[in-house]
Amino acid sequence: MRFEKWQALGNDYLIFEEVELSPNTVQRLCDPHFGPGADGVLVLTKPDEPGYVARLRIFNPDGSEAELSGNGAREAILYLRRHWTDADTFSIQTLAGEIRPTILSPTTCRVDMGRASLTSPNYPDGPPDGTGEVAGYRFQHVAIGNPQCAIRVQDPDALDLQAIGPQIERSALFPNRTNVSFWKEVAPDTIRARIFERGVGETLSSGTGASGAAVAHVVRGGDSPVTVQLDGGELVVDVDESLHVDLTGWAEPIYAAQLSEEFLAGGLGGGSPPEDLKQHMEAE
Ligand SMILES: N[C@@H](CCC[C@H](N)C(=O)O)C(=O)O
């Protein structure tokens, strides 16, 4: 089974076409020792409605499915531009709805992420301004396809995210768990952010996490477009008065590869091949 590994600011994904993957297979694929290793898996299939180039599904390393990923979407979009379409603007389907990219170069695109909201069913008891307190931190809830908890701190670099992140991700305030960003203002149009992702842990960057932090910054009076400085590089997030978000940044392929027969068979000592991969072994 062929796949490509891509990364965007160090947020790495494996891209597959036309497969159904079980949560267990996603976990094995994302494992850096027993599999290729990644921050997630992207699956591209033919769209099930007219007007779209493809349908994109996004999976976290714990096997859960995410509604949206900003970095993952750019990786999938630039992959589609190389393999599926000649168009520079098109639409893809995601669980978060339609996503519309504009290709700027073979490794850069701007993505219309839709309108962010400060209230959502992912923070059901939140006030109309989406603020709250969790684990001793004031936060801003932002729904930008997926749930974001943006926390303004004095110094994101002084924090131990592995120690703080899990209790926020799994707080009872957020019934579907949450992604978390810790950010500070560097200049009126620039913020520094570190990321703790739902279903992943600390990552070098996140497109939706950067968008959540940028929205929180603009809501507090910051300037847009916002340059977000992440561990893996910089993203530019445009946030207009209606909280409509456009995300611009790069993504690049690392390699294309085939899963080995041993992996498809479940790994040594793994018993019989998992049902999802068995079909592909039979087809190949
Ligand atoms: N890497 C991401 C977000 C991926 C999904 C997230 N972990 C979730 O569960 O919502 C990005 O670049 O946005």
Automatic annotation (TrEMBL):
<keyword id="KW-0963">Cytoplasm</keyword>
<dbReference type="Pfam" id="PF01678">
    <property type="entry name" value="DAP_epimerase"/>
</dbReference>
<keyword id="KW-0457">Lysine biosynthesis</keyword>
<comment type="similarity">
    <text>Belongs to the diaminopimelate epimerase family.</text>
</comment>
<feature type="binding site">
    <location>
        <begin position="70"/>
        <end position="71"/>
    </location>
    <ligand>
        <name>substrate</name>
    </ligand>
</feature>
<feature type="binding site">
    <location>
        <begin position="207"/>
        <end position="208"/>
    </location>
    <ligand>
        <name>substrate</name>
    </ligand>
</feature>
<protein>
    <recommendedName>
        <fullName>Diaminopimelate epimerase</fullName>
        <ecNumber>5.1.1.7</ecNumber>
    </recommendedName>
</protein>
<comment type="pathway">
    <text>Amino-acid biosynthesis; L-lysine biosynthesis via DAP pathway; DL-2,6-diaminopimelate from LL-2,6-diaminopimelate: step 1/1.</text>
</comment>
<feature type="binding site">
    <location>
        <position position="179"/>
    </location>
    <ligand>
        <name>substrate</name>
    </ligand>
</feature>
<feature type="binding site">
    <location>
        <position position="60"/>
    </location>
    <ligand>
        <name>substrate</name>
    </ligand>
</feature>
<feature type="binding site">
    <location>
        <position position="11"/>
    </location>
    <ligand>
        <name>substrate</name>
    </ligand>
</feature>
<keyword id="KW-0413">Isomerase</keyword>
<keyword id="KW-0028">Amino-acid biosynthesis</keyword>
<dbReference type="GO" id="GO:0008837">
    <property type="term" value="F:diaminopimelate epimerase activity"/>
</dbReference>
<feature type="binding site">
    <location>
        <position position="146"/>
    </location>
    <ligand>
        <name>substrate</name>
    </ligand>
</feature>
<comment type="function">
    <text>Catalyzes the stereoinversion of LL-2,6-diaminopimelate (L,L-DAP) to meso-diaminopimelate (meso-DAP), a precursor of L-lysine and an essential component of the bacterial peptidoglycan.</text>
</comment>
<dbReference type="InterPro" id="IPR001653">
    <property type="entry name" value="DAP_epimerase_DapF"/>
</dbReference>
<feature type="site" description="Could be important to modulate the pK values of the two catalytic cysteine residues">
    <location>
        <position position="197"/>
    </location>
</feature>
<comment type="subunit">
    <text>Homodimer.</text>
</comment>
<feature type="binding site">
    <location>
        <begin position="197"/>
        <end position="198"/>
    </location>
    <ligand>
        <name>substrate</name>
    </ligand>
</feature>
